[in-house]
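Researcher: Please predict.
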Amino acid sequence: MYCENCGKKLNEGADVCLECGHKVNNNQNTFNVQNIPSEYKPVSMWGYFGYQILFAIPFIGWIILIIFAIVHSNINVRNFARSYFCFLIVLGILFVILFTVGAGAVAITA
């Protein structure tokens, strides 16, 4: 048997292709990704990696992040952008707290 995604030979009874990670369709009753509406299509691992690099760009990436979090047609990408936005908010709050504590410590020692 061969992988539908990359064409590599699969081990007997494999559930996932070891080459590309594509889920193997062992019987006819399994769910087919191609039947999913476009707004629910899963995002690949490399897709998430690329979005993370894009969103990490200061200012421009953050603007794209906000746009993706609000209007992207794929719900998985939209939810990823929203979670990344929440992560940036928490990171910003921690930065402000650490900066305030650091500035207070410098003021006390001066």
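Model: Residues 44 and 50 are 10 Å apart (CA to CA).
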